[in-house]
Design goal:
mainly alpha, 4 helices, 64% helix, elongated, TM2 domain protein, membrane, transmembrane
Length: 86
């Protein structure tokens, strides 16, 4: 998609993506360029906090961080070598 917009693709930092999603689930996915996944986590997490009475909302934070980290690695493996991390 970056090529269509005239932008060069950039490598993503998996650690930063994980920390962003650990703090606010969905932000790490948006950082990676996965906008729909980010919106999903931004909607599901508050519902999970409220739906479980605050007991298991942390599960969404951990899962969102893990998926953001994994997707950042996946995006980086699809890019040509030698690109700087943004």
């Amino acid at each position: 998609m970056c090529y269509l917009l005239g932008m060069a693709p950039t490598r993503k930092d998996p650690g930063l993506a994980a920390v962003l999603s650990l703090v606010v689930p969905g932000v790490g996915q948006i950082y990676n360029g996965d906008f729909l996944r980010g919106i999903f986590w931004l909607i599901v997490t508050p519902g999970f906090w409220i739906g479980t009475g605050g007991l298991f909302g942390w599960v969404c934070h951990v899962l969102a961080a893990w998926t953001a980290h994994r997707r950042a690695h996946w995006h980086n493996h699809r890019l040509p070598l030698g690109l700087p991390v943004s």
